[in-house]
Amino acid sequence: MKKESKASILLGAAFLMATSAIGPGFLIQTTHFTSILAASFGFVILTSIIIDIGAQMNVWRIIAVSEKRAQDIANAVFPGLGVFLAILIVIGGLAFNIGNVAGAGLGLNVLFGISDQTGAILSGVIAILIFVVREAGKAMDRFTQVAGFVMIALTLYVMFTAQPPVGEAVVKTFVPDKIDILAIVTLVGGTVGGYITFAGAHRLLDAGIKGKESLGEVTRSSVSAIGIASIMRIFLFLASLGIVAQGLAIDPANPPASVFKLAAGNVGYKMFGIVLWAAAITSVVGAAYTSVSFIRTLNPLFEKYSKWLTIGFISVSTIVFALVGKPVAILILVGALNGLILPISLGVILIAAYKPKIVGDYKHPMWMTLFGVVIVLVMAAMSVYTMYTEIPKLFA
Fold first, then answer.
1. What are the start-end ranges of the H helices in 67-165?
2. Residue 164: pLDDT above 90?
3. For the chain, which terminus, N or C, has the lower number of CB atoms within 10 Å?
4. CA-based angle 353:354:356, to the nearest 5?
């Protein structure tokens, strides 16, 4: 593999994972919780970044060294476990993708004034075309990179326009006024929960970047992915904080649109349309690709027709939104549900790390294992707490 193409694939995998995370739910969750917690939301972001890195490094390394997809690893740990994990991932991916399609439709509505449904259908067609082209992997990598850079650049502009109190944000990141468990679970779930943490790892596997000799590159790519998503999260948080600090009210019906409009007027509102569409369409692509990658090895027919399964996945998501729609509370709920999937999937990966039939003679670093075990226990406890105490409040 040429050096240039390998570097491009590593960057593409990082952006695929990051842009899969940066969807409509990501935008809504970040602005929603900033409006509630203000500068203390910085602590939630810092905590989620630490958890994200620990989860991501463990998952990507074991997938690379085993040279197997996550569902095949799970089946090797315990027969049938891979099927169960695949079902969880696909259901979560489909639920999230309906929200992604909704976001894409809303983005085109903001930009061109067309209906949400029409915008969603057009976006679904664009996402499908990416998988129809001959070199779908390369097209997907390039598309997610360009869209990712555009999102970050526009959000950075709005952040500066909002003039946030950066000093206060730094202080409250380490000494918060309040610690919000729902916010932590939702952010982690929306960044590395469900299908998202596997997006880049499966992409690298498909591209042939695997084995012990590739572990250094895989680890760097995994951390880069969290870095890209976190930069976007921090910029959006500071932009939102600038609005809150000015005493302006963020509209709970559409928190991120409100932030962009209050910070930069109608121009900002149009920028939001671009950011929302880019965030949504890349998440549609990432969710479809990764969800299908979880079932394609379960049956030879799934492998043979994986491209059409991906197209079908996008089509179903688009049709469901066109018929039903997706409110803000549901996007927060799905993020929290994906946070519940994380301790299951990461727990399976950590068990696999010590199975010679899966990883051969590879020795997983003990510090990484302990890091992973702590994340499994903490996320399991916080997710159960959230499901029973916090989620019902969203729908009260």
1. 70-77, 81-112, 116-132, 136-162
2. yes
3. C
4. 100
